[in-house]
Design a protein that fits this description.
Radius of gyration: 18 Å
CATH class: Alpha Beta
CATH topology: Rossmann fold
Shape: globular
Strand content: 5-15%
Structural class: alpha/beta
CATH superfamily: NAD(P)-binding Rossmann-like Domain
Helix content: 25-40%
Number of helices: 8
Largest sheet: 7 strands, mixed
Order of helices and strands: EHEHEHEHEHEHHHE
CATH architecture: 3-Layer(aba) Sandwich
Length: about 280
């Protein structure tokens, strides 16, 4: 279990689901947690459950000024921020041909702008300190969009992946100690499906839904435990990774693509139970 002693971690979407589970995990490892979400009473209850000096900051992360206020509150309470996790987001249950302008606007607002505001708010602080970690929680659907009702959500998370890679490239030369991490969960047993625009299937009832605390443990391992990985596998030679079963069989089933803890980071290797290259698409154990 990787430690967080003396570390300050900000987590958006921290009142429930992955965000709340991650906050509990990091606090249990000795970290000081600042959690943010829109619903103040649920957020306060989550902070009370976390304990260990957790700070609750009610925040609408789709409003830039509120994200900047979150940063300021975190710095005032703890003096610095070591890790910032852009976890807040929302799904939608509507196929592509039924999407309206308001649907796309909502998905961009909730899944792209919210994380963009977080990155823009905290990066100057990390640049001044010379280190830090930014983790953006995306989805495996951004790479394998096999769920038609999540069309706009998947597309916006793909845009988030691109922004994350771009930030990593911008910081790499002058700020090599600021790490930028992308996390791509699959089906997780939370209220995500129930909270999706237009309703939708309960994620907890879907086959292969992964326990939220297992997912939180994988995410928590990323910031204090850097590993090196290739962004692309070699084209030839004995070191080229063998395509997974799902890659060879064409994603034959939803169960084969469920999240088992993928995170990716420029120039860093991953554990064996996660994607290690663009050909590997089976993340089940």
């Amino acid at each position: 279990m990787q430690g967080y002693e003396g570390k300050v971690v900000v987590i958006t979407g921290g009142s429930e689901g992955i965000g709340a589970a991650l906050a509990e995990e990091i606090a249990a490892r000795g970290g000081r947690v600042v959690v943010a979400a829109r619903t103040a009473d649920k957020l306060q209850a989550a902070a009370a459950k976390i304990g260990r000096g957790a700070v609750a900051v009610p925040t609408d992360v789709t409003v830039r000024a509120e994200v900047e206020r979150l940063r300021d509150r975190a710095l005032a309470a703890a003096g610095r921020v070591d890790v910032w996790v852009n976890n807040a987001g929302r799904g939608i249950s509507k196929p592509l041909l039924s999407l309206g302008d308001e649907d796309i606007d909502a998905m961009v607002r909730d899944n792209v702008k919210s994380a963009l505001y977080g990155m823009q708010a905290i990066v100057p602080h990390m640049q001044a300190r010379g280190d830090g970690v930014i983790a953006n929680v995306s989805t495996m659907l951004s790479r394998v969009p096999f769920a038609p009702i999540r069309s706009a959500y998947s597309a916006c998370k793909a845009a988030l992946n691109s922004l994350t890679e771009t930030l990593r490239a911008e910081l790499r030369e002058k700020y090599p100690n600021i790490r930028v991490v992308t996390v791509l969960p699959g089906v997780v047993a939370t209220d995500f499906g129930n909270h999706a625009l237009g309703g939708g299937p309960d994620s907890r009832a879907l086959p292969g839904a992964q326990d939220v605390h297992e997912v939180a443990g994988v995410i928590a391992d990323a910031p204090p435990h850097p590993q090196r990985r290739r962004l692309h596998p070699p084209r030839h030679g004995k070191d080229r990774p063998r395509p997974s079963r799902a890659a060879r069989q064409g994603l034959a089933s939803h169960r084969r693509t469920r999240f088992r803890g993928r995170r990716e980071e420029g120039g860093r290797e991953e554990p064996k139970n996660v994607w290690t290259g663009p050909e590997s698409v089976d993340t089940s154990k």
